[in-house]
Amino acid sequence: MSRYQIQASAVINAPAKRVYDIIADYREGHPNILPKKYFSSLEIEKGGIGAGTVIRFRMTVMGKSQTFRASITEPEPGRVLAETDIKNDSVTTFTVSPSADGRQSTVIITSELKSHDGLVGVFQRFATKRLLSRIYKEELVTLALMVEKL
After folding, report:
1. Could you tell me the CATH number of the domain that includes residue 46?
2. Strand partners for 71
3. Do residues 126 and 113 touch, judged by C-beta distance below 8 A?
């Protein structure tokens, strides 16, 4: 198995704290930025805001549905939030940094995933990168629209 990364970013017209608070809120904020065509549920098993939260979510891609469980940590509280898949150690981080003298935020979504080696891995990485990049871009657009309304 080898590891690889997928990343998407956007500049959002809102202060970093407001943006981060939405991402870290798994009860009200975060579920509303997930593209409904891929995510059919997000349930909270423990906590609900930031570090210590444990979530279960269902994702459907190319007609195949899977359930994932993730543990939430905040390696840099107020700036970096990490979702670690409990089953396979894949990690998705949300990094929120202030920009434009605090009037805007740069948000980066990064996933570090495992793939098979060889030709199977090449196809797996290609398909996953295309799909997750699209999903992350949709999340960022939805996040921008949501936070700019507040």
Report:
1. 3.30.530.20
2. 54, 84
3. no
Judge whether residue 62 has pLDDT over 80: no
Spatial strand order of the sheet with 2-12 comes to: 2-12, 104-115, 91-99, 80-85, 64-76, 54-61, 39-46
Which regions of 2-143 does DSSP assign to beta strands (E)? 2-12, 39-46, 54-61, 64-76, 80-85, 91-99, 104-115
111-138 CB burial, b ≥16 within 10 A, e <16: bbbebeeeeeeeebbeebbeebeebbeb
Q: Is pLDDT of 83 > 80?
A: yes
pLDDT band at 114 (very low <50, low <70, confident <90, very high): confident
DSSP H helices, the chain, are 16-24, 118-149
Tokens in use for 75? 């390696």
Determine the Cα–Cα distance for residues 14 and 19; give it in Å rounded to an integer.
7
Domain tally, the chain: 1
For residue 48, the enclosing domain spans 2-149
The pTM for the full model equals 0.93
Closest CA to 73 of 29, 26, 129, 12: 26
Indicate the residue type of 68.
Answer: F
